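ESCALATION

Customer reports they have been waiting on this structure for their group meeting. Please prioritize. Original submission:
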Amino acid sequence: MMRIILYTGKGGVGKTSISAATAIQSAKKGFKTLVMSTDPAHSLGDSFGITLSSEPTQMMENLWAQEINTTYEMEKGWGKIQKYITLLFTSRSINDITTEELTMFPGMEDLMSLLKILEYYKEKQFDVIIIDCAPTGETLAMLSFPDMLRWWMEKLFPLKRKALKVIRPVAQPLLGIPLPTDDIMEELENVLEQLDEMRQILSNRDITSVRIVVNPEKMVVKEAQRSFTYLNLYDYSVDAIIVNRVIPDSIADPYFQVWKDIQRKYKTMIQDSFTPLPIYDAPLFEQELVGVNMLERMGETIFAEDDNPISIKFNLRTQQIEKDGDRYTFSVYIPFANKHELSLHQKGDELIIRAGAVKRNITLPRTLAPLAIIGAKFENDVLKIQFGGSNL
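Update from on-call: job pushed to the front of the queue and completed.
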């Protein structure tokens, strides 16, 4: 079965280097591997030290790399619908250089990326696809895009193909705008069908995993906590955390001691936030991570004790929200905990759970942050917390 791994995290944490490093380790294990960038601000080619194109480029045995060109993919896979939307604008006397820009509505880059991943999945040309995602917010937008686009398109094109055939000759002159033709509706239905397929693939825990890259810094960890919560709510599987640019213990220069103390503090915070997920460390190297040799070294360091870097590292949903009337139940998986040692504390959008000497820090989604805890129970390793009323 094909493996798909998405690396995400705050901008600048080193997602690209870790994506490339993982891909090299995968290729060395004999898996035909594609590493691709869906970030509009591509840096994958810079990481390898070469110029990449919109088609896969072979880097070494079993390894290909690609930077998705959304304009190129748009013309290939969305042409008729784009022309129709352009026609809508020009029919209302909007006919200047902005017209084509308007048809590239927010999220089109996400759409093109998803359709390209689906294409490779169906072709079975690769054993492993590793995706260097855009920063966290854009990644969440991409993963939610299939649901969002279906809603958007059903509002824009609410009529079915058969109905349009009947009413088009009468309605078009009255409305003064062109109605979508049969081939446009066919292309739209095809795109929506593909997105439904992609949603199933992305949420299949036996195929797809998300890995969050963090640096041991306060703002980075807070964003990672929040993205971890939302990924769980979308039911996407997060199977590992990669802590990047950790200052090695072997560095004894006094200049780095303060930074080492700061990193030690936030590494504890990372442990508290993401247990029981496996956490891997990537050190701060003594030189720039550019080129296959340095990326290979990075991958060997991260996965030094891991025989298979692309295997599923964790496969349980750790958080879930269910709504019942005006109340919500927030379920948190806490294995091996003793319920008599559990305690809860809510501070703003942060939920602190203690189980003896172990602490979990969870950033609540916006829906729950203003609500108060009104009850909790612990059964079968799951803590179920009820929210209702106001926390203000």
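Sent to customer with the following note: Residues 150 and 192 are 6 Å apart (CA to CA).
Escalation resolved.
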